[in-house]
Write a structure and sequence with these properties.
about 350 residues, mainly alpha
Length: about 350
Amino acid sequence: MPVPEAQSLRLPETLDRPAVTDWVARRPALLRAPFPKSLDCSALKRVDSAGLALLIFLRGRGVALDGLPDGVAASLRVCEEAAAGVGDAASAPRREGFVTALGRALCETFAAWGDALAYLGELLWWWGASLFRPRLFRWGDFCVAFYRGGVQALPVVGLIGFLLGLILAFQSAMPLRMFGAEGFVGGLVGIALVRELGLIITAILVTGRTGSAFAAELGTMKVNEEIDALETMGLRPVRFLVVPRVAAGTFALPVLALFATLCGLLGGWFVMAILGFTLSYFVDQLTAFVGIGDLIGSFAKSFVFGFAVSAVGCRCGLTAGRDAGAVGTATTSAVVLGIVLTAVLEGLFAVVFFAMGW
């Protein structure tokens, strides 16, 4: 249907908000397709933002603005350039400066450390509350986590410990034989396993097996919105989900470390038997090189490592995203952070024990 006055329309002298409203109201078809081919703008002398918006709209629809005065044309050009610049700025990605990027990274790091400290404080608080009020502790979850993370890990931990002692004895026997000191293999294997290697290997295995399992379990609960349901009911996820798992990991790792050390000593004795030494000689070497202080120090470290590995795994699970990829990322982070934290703690313990003369 043809639009009235479609070939040429004449604009008034003033195109402010009231004039635009009145002029468009008189021509309701003006803002609908098909649009007029041209507008006579020769009489136009004064415009405001509403008038410029109307002119920009019409020009964008292909309407020719005939006789547009120079002043109005300049204002219209400035508005169009500004609109184009805003669109380009909105579509183009913002480039951060070095100071901005550094500040953002520092703020994110401090926020992450603050969240980690808050998580550690809440974990210790609920654990302490469970000691004074045992009914708050979820013994069923503790037993299940201890069985899965401790009892079921005995075969692989024992195998790795035996092979570690076997390899360590074989590798140390050859250089010591050059000096006629292969009889000290038992003492070397004993002190290495009791003081460091047995616990370190066990902590790494627990990190890869139990810490990652905690992260995957809690991450899956996060995806299924089970943790959100607990918070909606006013229940703290740290108390119900984290404390039993961390307690199980804390008490399971010393048992596993002791078992791995015994299996490693068995492997060392196996090599000593091949070299022609008796069991009593091997035991004498152990008692000569390994003291009660070594056992106490290793046993104390195992509790700290178990707590750290389990707490990191649960933390990664609680902070996981809400998709399958995020659960995998949380599991990977739990393993990596657990191993790094184990190495850092071992270094700190080494410095402390050296200062104490152990």
